Amino acid sequence: MVYMKGDIEVKTKTREGGIFFGKLKVSMLGGESFFVNNYIAKGGGCSIGLTGAPIGDISSVLEGSKEYG
Predict the structure, then answer these.
(1) Which residues, 6+ apart, have CB-to-CB distance to 16 below 8 Å?
(2) Alpha helices (H) along the chain
(3) Are the CB atoms for 48 and 5 separated by under 8 Å?
(4) DSSP state of 48
(5) Contact present, 34 and 14 (Cβ < 8 Å)
(6) Could you give the 3-state DSSP secondary structure of residue 20?
(7) CA angle 2-34-46, nearest 5°?
(8) d(C-alpha 16, C-alpha 20), whole Å
(9) Is 3 exposed, middle or buried (0-12, 13-18, 19+ CB in 10 A)?
(10) pLDDT in tens, the chain (69 residues)
(11) Could you give the angle at the alpha carbon of 7 between the alpha carbons of 5 and 10, nearest 5°?
(12) Which residues contact 61 (CB under 8 A, 6 or more apart)?
């Protein structure tokens, strides 16, 4: 989450359907999250900003006496 504005309730739970090990298999093999978040706006003017994970790796590069990254 990048930002949350207003009165928003966040409820976190495990995925629905299947048994525990089925949910775990989906999260491990399918790359899906084991948990699901539900966002409930409690009033007007609420908003949230979501983003995906960054693509690739982020690392520091040391060149001489300068560090980049």
Answers:
(1) 36
(2) 20-30
(3) yes
(4) E
(5) yes
(6) helix
(7) 30
(8) 10
(9) exposed
(10) 789 999 999 999 876 666 666 666 665 666 666 678 899 999 899 999 988 877 777 777 777 776 665
(11) 95
(12) 67, 68, 69
Measure Cα distances from 34 to 9, 15, 28 in Å: 20, 6, 8
Residue showing tokens 């090990």: 21
Could you identify the residue written with the tokens 């960054």? 54
pTM for this predicted structure: 0.54
Question: Could you give the CA distance from residue 42 to residue 11 in angstroms, rounded to a whole number?
Answer: 13
Instruction: Decide if 11 contacts 35 (C-beta within 8 A).
Output: no
